Amino acid sequence: MPPTSTATDRTAARFDGFGEDFPLEVPALHGPSGAGLLGRFADGSMDAFADTLAAVHNCARPVRLAGSSTTVDARTGEVLSTFRTADAPLGVLYRPCGNRRAHVCPACSRTYARDTFALISAGIAGGKTVPEQVADNPLLFATFTAPSFGLVHGHRGGRPCRPRRRDDRTRCPHGRPQWCTAVHEPGDARSGAPLCADCCDVASAVLWQWHAPELWRRTTIALRRAVAAHLGVTESGLGEHASIQYAKVAEYQDRGLVHFHALIRLDGPAAAGIGAPAPAALDGLMFAALVRRPRRV
User: Fold this and answer.
1) What is the DSSP string of the chain?
2) CA 103: distance to chain centroid?
3) Is the dihedral of CA 74, 75, 81, 84 positive or negative?
4) Which of 98, 189, 254, 278 is the most exposed place for a label (fewest CB within 10 A)?
5) How far apart, in whole angstroms, are the C-alpha atoms of residue 35 and residue 49?
6) pLDDT at residue 166, as a whole number
7) C-alpha–C-alpha distance, residues 120 and 270, integer Å
């Protein structure tokens, strides 16, 4: 179901480039690309190229498919339809690559960003079949980050990296300074590098990186158990009283370690549908306390 005009207008005001009528991001064409377009004007294939480009939403690296298909009625054996890629405008069937990385495909990346923003917005304020009362349910924005495995340089928003008073400028056991008065700008190659490579616990950092997905999985299990215990129900019967919805993004820090940003929403019974009113016995503050509380799984 398409979003209402009010929801669309509200979202468009907060996210640049969102909306059905927003123009495609067409990169500048130089060199071989520009020459190729001129060649299509010359040989008369420009219309077919434009139709194909529109069909793949301006994808920079479309997937090329070749072959044929036949749809047959299994009961009568009648051929209902046939398709051959040779009959396509350019003789090949093109499909968008769907890559999320802007440096690989700006168009598909932008489409993914718009779709994700619309999905998250609906989960927060309603829209796209999600009722507006979902905004009344407890919602948390949580960051799950790795512990320190050693002091590192970093971008501090225009402030010195690791300043210390002159009378407190200690050195590590290897004789290296544990302070840094430099201002690291975004993109500085030193950001994330350890102040002392010998003090950095590389083995533990690798273990964190390897087990991060499993740690997230166990966190969701622990939270489910904690919510069930707070409501006085069994974990298997929690779905009859409440459900927990997640939207999670993994991001790499400058020091190379992954951390997670997550939206965690508490809904009512799963059978009542997405966005059903959350149990009155569990408000936002208590829900946040359950997320913070460490538990073993």
Assistant:
1) -PPPHHHHHHHHHHSTT-STTSPP-PPP--THHHHHHHHHHHHT-HHHHHHHHHHTTT-SSPEEE--EEEEE-TTT--EEEEEEGGGSTTSSEEE------TTT-HHHHHHHHHHHHHHHHHHHH-BTTB-GGGGGS-EEEEEE----SS-B----SSS-SB---GGG--B-TTS-BS-B---PPTT-TTTT-BS-TTTS-HHHHHHHHHHHHHHHHHHHHHHHHHHHHHHT--STTGGGT-EEEEEEEEEE-TTS-EEEEEEEEEES-GGG-TTPPPPTTS-HHHHHHHHHS----
2) 16
3) positive
4) 189
5) 14
6) 79
7) 19
Rounded to the nearest 5°, which phi and psi values hold at 245? -110, 140
Amino acid at 255: R
d(CA 18, CA 122): 14
Q: What is the pLDDT at residue 3?
A: 43
Instruction: Report how far residue 227's alpha carbon sits from residue 233's, in angstroms, rounded to the nearest whole number.
Output: 9
- Say how far apart CA 217 and CA 13 lie, in whole Å: 35
Residues of the chain with pLDDT under 50: 1-8, 11
Environment class of 47 (CB within 10 Å of its CB; exposed 0-12, middle 13-18, buried 19+): exposed
Residue with tokens 């408000």: 283
